[in-house]
């Protein structure tokens, strides 16, 4: 298979957006270090996390070859790239709040649990975390598998390669974050975790990387950020 080494214009635009995302993560590192004396439980990235995310850069230039929409794909309506993904993520976030907070832990917290962080730092941390997951659970592995299907000249089977990648990447997160006890919580986490991840894979292939990232950001907005605001400013006061 012959590769063209010229960088496509849309790939360069993808890179610009991606670097803006890394800048947000970098700001979060500086911000976190500036307030860490106030919060003993603060989770802070370091520069090694940023360097690892640079591994995703080469794949930004392969989208057209792999039939994945670019970040700046004008043919895709904004509702498919932004509004619907955020709404889908919000549904999962609200569901998590209802099941885990309202039903299973209705009593007020005495301190922020590990999955919450002080606001507004929480925005930077969970944006960075969402980006990291989508790069290493979606962008890199799915692109590699699709690229493999091209290299071995099995284009007629590319759809099978995609669905293998879809299932493997969609089940990874719920298995890694499986609760240690509670049959209901285990079943709930597996089902909703797999469902959200498989939707992200579908959106990634159909509408591009930004759409699957915004699904996760919609989830994190409610489950990590807004819940954190409620706990920090209403339960802990």
From TrEMBL:
Signal peptide: none annotated. The chain crosses the membrane at residues 15-32, 44-63, 83-104, 124-150, 157-172, 184-204, 213-231. Keywords: Membrane, Transmembrane, Transmembrane helix. This is CAAX protease self-immunity. It comes from Flavobacterium keumense.
